Amino acid sequence: MEDLECVFRWVIGSSVRLRERNVSEKRKVLEPDAGAIIFLHRSQFVADAFESMEDVIILGTGCAGLTAAIYTGRAQLNPLVLEGTQPGGQLTTTSEVENFPGFPEGIDGFAMMDNLRKQAARFGARYAHAKVDRIEMADGVKRLVCGEQSYEAKVVIVATGARPRLLGIPGEEEMFGGKGVTTCATCDGAFYRDMDVVVVGGGDSACEEALFLTRFCSKVTLIHRRDSLRASQIMAERATTHEKIEMAWNTLPQAVMADEKGFVRGMRVKDAVSGAEREIPCKGAFIAIGHIPNTDFVEGLLERDGDGYIVPETGSQVKTGLEGLFAAGDCVDHVYRQAITAAGMGCQAAIEAERWLAEQ
Ligand code: NAP
Asked: For the segment 93-125, what is each residue's pLDDT rounded down to a tens digit?
C-alpha cells in the first residue's frame, strides 16, 4: 500500500486549500478548513495542489496593482491581490487628486483607491493581507513566502510601489498628509495658493517641486543641507534664478513647527556652518529628499539599480527578464511617479501576464 499513501484532507464544499509545500513536507501542514474528512491518493494530492495554485498574484494595492487587478479580473484570471503595509498605496495619504483624468472636480485620494479596489473586486479580484518576505522560483512556480505562510502562482505582478524618504524630525509625522507636510507638489501644490512654503532637498525632485510650486505660492524657500545642489545643471539653474525661490544653503531641518490648530506654521532649521538656529515661516513643508522603492524582498532575484528600483528588460516597461514575473508602477518607475503612469504600467503588466499565460 506504499503507493497508496493516504493523507487526510479537510474540505469545505469544493474549496481546496492544500499547498504544494504540503507535498514535500508530506502531510505536515494541512489547512484546517472544517468539514468532511476524506482519504486521498498521493497522486491526486499533487494534482490538487497544482490546481490550487493561483494563476495571478498581484503584490500591492496602489494604482499599478489595482489596475492590474481590474485587467486580469476582466480577463477572468481571478487574481489574488496581496495588500502590504499600506493598503491603497501612496494616494491614500493625499487629500485630493486633481490630475487623474476623468475627475473634473477632483477626487479624494482615499476614495479613489477605494473605487479602484471595488472595481477590481467586481471582476473577481480577491484580497489578502500579507507582507512578502521573498519570492522563490522553482519549475515555473513562483512561491511567495510571507512569514509562516506561503502562496503559489504561475504569474506574479510586483507593484509594491515606493515610499517617499522622510526627514525623521519632530512634527513631520504628526502633520503629514493634510496638515501641511507633504511629499508631492503635483498633488498638493494648488492648496498653497498665495502662501509661503518650504521645499527640502537638493536633487532634481526638489528643484522640480520648488519650480512647480512657484505657480501657486507667494514664496518658496528651498532648503538644502549643502552649499551646492545635486540636481542637474539646468534644473539647478532654473531653481536658483527663479524670482520666487529663495535658497537656504547649508541648512539642516530640525523640526516642523505647528500653529495652535496643529497645522504647519514654520520649519526650525540649523545653519550647518555656524550652528545658529532659526525658524522659517511657512504654511506648507514639501519633503523631496528621494524615494525608497519597496523592493528589498526581490534582492538577488531581480535586477535593481543603485537606488533599489527594479530594472525592466530592455524594450519593455514591465517585463523583469524572469518568465511570468512582471513589475509595474513606482517600484520600477523613478522618473514619472504619477498615479496615471502607475495605472498605465499596471495595465501593461496585466496584458503581458495574460499573454504569457495563454502561451503556456
Ligand atoms: P536625489 O537625486 O537622490 O536627491 C535627494 C536630495 O535630498 C539630495 O540633494 C540630498 O542631499 C537630499 N537629502 C537626502 N537625504 C536628506 C536628509 N536626510 N536631509 C536633508 N537632505 C537630504 O533624489 P531625487 O531628487 O528624488 O531624484 C531621484 C532621481 O530621479 C535622480 O536620478 C533624478 O535625476 C531623477 N529625477 C529627474 C527629474 C527630471 O529630470 N526632471 C525630476 C525628478 C527626479 P545631498 O545632495 O547632500 O545628498
From this structure: 556 788 899 999 999 888 999 999 999 999 999
**Where residue 25 falls among pLDDT bands split at 50, 70, 90?**
very low
Q: Tell me what pLDDT residue 246 has.
A: 98
**144-177 as b/e, with b when 16 or more CB fall inside 10 Å?**
bbbeeebbbbbbbbbbbbbbbeebebebbeebbb
Pocket of ligand 1 (CB under 6 A): 167, 200-206, 208, 225-226, 230, 289-290, 334
The ligand 1 atom at the shortest distance from the C-alpha of residue 208 is 42
Q: What number does the ligand 1 atom closest to the CA of 334 have?
A: 30
Count of beta carbons in the 10 Å neighbourhood of residue 139: 4
Positions annotated as catalytic residues are: 184, 187-188
Nearest CA owner, ligand 1 atom 48: 230
pTM listed for this prediction: 0.70
CA angle 67, 70, 74 (to 5 degrees): 145
Q: Which residue has the least CA distance to atom 28 on ligand 1?
A: 290
CA distance to 118, 340, 341, per residue, from 100 (Å): 18, 6, 10
For 358, other C-beta atoms within 10 Å of its C-beta total 8
Residue whose CB lies within 8 A of the most ligand 1 atoms, among 226, 289, 332, for a mutation test: 289
Q: Which domains does the chain have, with CATH numbers?
A: 2-52 (no CATH), 54-163+291-359 (3.50.50.60), 166-287 (3.50.50.60)
The per-residue pLDDT for range 167-186, each reduced to its tens digit, is 999 999 999 988 999 998 88
Question: pLDDT tens across 245-290, in order?
Answer: 999 999 999 999 999 999 999 999 999 999 999 999 999 999 999 8
Residues linked to residue 42 through DSSP beta bridges, in sequence order: none
Mean pLDDT of the chain: 86
Do 159 and 87 contact (CB within 8 A), yes or no?
A: no
Q: What is the mean pLDDT of residues 312-326?
A: 96
Q: How far is CA 276 from the centre of its chain?
A: 38
